[in-house]
Design goal:
By secondary structure, this protein is mainly α. It is built from two helices and no strands. The longest helix has 58 residues.
Length: 97
């Protein structure tokens, strides 16, 4: 059986500990990157969902308009509300963005 001198074993252990530390640091960087990307993805999905809802509401609103309809205060208020929502989403001030 071959024996390794004590100093040789310590060197191997030190090298192993250094390698472990290096991989732990890399793992921490990866973890931070994954958390950041997941957070960004969530924000993007929320913005996308807001855009989809706005598009559906806008389509429904426009489809109700017919030739000869009178533009009422309610119609203008709804239009302004849709435009305000669009502006919030585009400028990044919407809730959840």
């Amino acid at each position: 059986m071959e024996t390794t001198p004590v100093s040789g074993r310590n060197q191997n252990a030190d090298e192993l500990l250094a390698a472990i530390k290096k991989y732990q640091e890399a793992l921490q960087v990866l973890e931070q990157t994954l958390v950041r990307r997941a957070t960004e993805q969530y924000a993007i999905e929320q913005q996308y969902n807001s855009l989809v809802k706005l598009a559906r509401d806008g389509i429904e609103f426009v489809c109700r308009c017919q030739v000869g309809d009178v533009i009422s205060e309610d119609w203008v208020a709804k239009r302004d509300e849709l435009l305000a929502r669009a502006h919030e989403i585009v400028s990044g001030t919407a809730a959840g963005s």
